[in-house]
Amino acid sequence: MNKKKTILSLLLSYKYSFLAGLLALSIVDLCQLSIPLVIERVVDALTLEGAGFNDISKYGLIMVGIAVTMSIFRFFWRYFIMGAARKIEQSLRNEFFAHLQGLQFDFFSRKKVGDLMAHTVNDIETLKFACGLGVLIAYDGIFLLVFIFGAMLYISPILTLYAFIPFPILAFIIIKFGNMIEERFQRVQDSFSELTESARTSISGIKVVKAFVREKEEAGDFGNASSDYLDRNLRVIKIWGVYQPVITFLAGIATAIFLWLGGVKTITLDITLGNFAAILLYLTMLTWPMMAMGWAVDIIKRGNASLNRINDILLETPQSVTETGTLDVDIKGDVEFRNLNFSYNGKRVLKDASFKIPRGSAVGITGATGSGKSTLFQLLTRVEEPPFGTVFIDGVDVREIKKESLRKGVVYVPQETTVFSGTVRDNISFMNPALTDEEIENAARIAEIYDDIMEFPGGFDARVGERGLTLSGGQRQRIALARALLLKPAVLILDDVFSSLDLRTESLVLRNLRREMKGRTLLVISSRVPSISGFDSVAVFEKGRLVESGVHTELMQKNGIYAGLYRIQTFETI
Asked: pLDDT tens digits for 16-42?
């Protein structure tokens, strides 16, 4: 399990880059801090007797040297600090995405895609700013604050202490407002997730939206999500709107205190005019560290809020990659279920299911919706874990077979097929991009999608749009089938994947599949009983139980559920 990440742990992963960048920033700040001291010398040289042109020229050259040094090291702090922040962004985003790939199926049923997208993009982007700009401003503010305070103490300890009277109030405000910013920004990010999900669901379901003329309703729903996002952002802006003026006001008070007391000290000659000018310049410079501390707290608190959201996902237990005690099995195709019982959330969906499927046979599975058909094969492929001693392949308990071996030998194609944005070729060869054109075209012919593809502009290189938006449901199903066939599985399971096909096309596909899968096991779940009536065997499920099984003629003679469904779907009379 991943450990909970902190901003500090992220920074330490690139500590040498940050150290180099902060060293370069320190040199820039020291050069900047030396400017008032040079100005002090210039003012004193101009007001005191004995000053000459050479002295002024010397200080001018010093200022040029300071400017050149600052320019050079500004490049280095930007390169190292901002570069390290970008590397943190990249590594964290890669780690987060890889972690998502290893999570269990039930996690994705609990989480919205829009929320995960917001984590992957927006939250990690906010963290980049916290690790880059936030760290930069915080260090710069603290460094300048400490050294300005030290330099002012060196010139006049009494005046410095008076000028720093407002600072305890500033520290309290930074802590108080920082906590408020973190809390409110986390709500902003949650609202952004909802906004992203609203856009995603509407765009991915655009066909349904237009079919039911719901464009205005969808725009209204998105507008409501957008308004909520705006409201939560405005709440953060209100905090920031009060925060910055208060800091500026406190800086003004510090300057006012110095002008009053420092002016008196200069008139009474307790300090020189050069001392007064230097401290005044330092106080002017002090405005930035005070503003920087407030800004840094804002950025870092926002980053911390985003990191909390990311940690919630990273701490989810991933699916184990290494399986101890399991076997590498070269699957042949014999399948057996023994007294299989299985429940979802306490509800029994399979009850004492027992039957054998010999290698090389074609078996149809049918039954009413919710009768447990799909669950049966999700257990076979260990999408869900079956109880020990209930599901076997080639006589071996599937719980003892490595998932990698299982997924190579047994391919499950669900009814809700997935088509990725890209070309038709990319989708068919998704599992193996090294496939030849001949292999891809042959799989398309078996799936009876070849002719459709050739009518697309560009043929196999035609782009299918996001989630296959430009394809019909039947085309998406057949592309998914062609993709599965190229894996050459020992056992191929099709879960109602012909639901969007006309009867003629379905018949052609099944004929091709029977020929292609000869000697291998073909399992087809279908609500269309006539489509699987010619299979070697048909199993009928009702309320989680296997109630009938056999060949078509036997089942028709029993005059049970199968016979009733067959007659209804073929308009036969008893």
From this structure: 999 999 999 889 888 887 777 777 677
